[in-house]
Specification:
2 domains, about 150 residues, mainly alpha, single chain, Cytochrome Bc1 Complex, Chain D, domain 2, 8 helices, about 0% strand
């Protein structure tokens, strides 16, 4: 819920770009944003995304868990996993769960954090730094892995 509130506010205030979300969020006040975030946060987490038809999920699993010291790649799991009954929720409420998200959504967001435009929302700079060393292959592999994660 905290993450959804943060991103909806960022869209409403023009700190996060989306030709679809910005016009929808712009007229919303704080109460509406809180209500929407609570509604979506309370919905079932049943996976409805699409697996990525490319990328190596096994390599993505290793990269997500361990990162790569040689390539200066941080572990995704250190921020985006470790809480919840299935261990797939992030430890912090202002960090999104990426396990089980649509493969193309993960792929495109990682490329955006790496190549820009990077949102000016809180903590976006952390993802920008984490995504900078990722190759296209790394991004595809991570997206393939996380899109396939539906449960613990």
């Amino acid at each position: 819920e905290a993450w959804l509130t943060t991103v909806l506010t960022a869209y409403a205030e023009g700190h996060r770009e989306s030709g679809f979300m910005e016009p929808l969020a712009a007229p919303l006040g704080d109460a509406a944003i809180s209500g929407i975030a609570a509604r979506y946060a309370g919905m079932s987490a049943t996976w409805q995304g699409s697996p990525l038809p490319f990328g190596d999920p096994e390599r993505g699993r290793e990269l997500a868990a361990q990162g790569s010291e040689h390539d200066d790649i941080a572990s995704c799991a250190s921020c985006h996993e470790g809480a919840g009954a299935d261990g797939l929720a992030p430890k912090r409420p202002d960090t999104p769960r990426i396990a089980g998200q649509d493969g193309y959504w993960i792929y495109n967001w990682l490329k955006m954090y790496r190549d820009g435009p990077v949102p000016s929302s809180p903590r976006a700079h952390l993802m920008e730094a984490a995504a900078k060393p990722l190759s296209d292959e790394d991004i595809a592999d991570l997206a393939a892995w996380y899109a396939a994660r539906q449960d613990g």
